[in-house]
Write a structure and sequence with these properties.
106 residues, mainly alpha
């Protein structure tokens, strides 16, 4: 048996082993890329959910601000009415005083 005959199967075996190792490495790299892609998709999905929640909160805030503005307008309207009622009450008081003083004088 020649050295060549002994080395040739070893060389073929080493080449197959190197091929299998390369394939395993490629499979591992592919799996890592796939896992990174899936993680990115999950992150983007989470970001999308947060963005939707932020939009909902912004809409709620805008609605609440509109409600506050409406209520402030109502409050101002009631204040004006109250001031008008106070002025009318002062007029009635003045009229009653005048009436009382004129009945006392008579």
């Amino acid at each position: 048996m020649h050295a060549h005959d002994i080395v040739q199967p070893l060389d073929a075996g080493l080449q197959r082993l190197a091929g299998v190792a390369f394939d395993m490495r490629q499979d591992r790299l592919h799996a890592q890329c796939e896992a990174a892609y899936e993680q990115r998709e999950r992150s983007l999905s989470a970001v999308g959910r947060v963005a939707a929640r932020v939009r909902e909160d912004a809409n709620t805030i805008a609605a609440l601000q509109a409600e506050v503005a409406r209520l402030r307008g109502e409050t101002n309207s009631w204040r004006v009415r109250a001031l008008g009622a106070e002025a009318h009450l002062d007029e009635v008081r003045g009229a009653l005083r005048t009436l009382r003083s004129s009945t006392r004088a008579a």
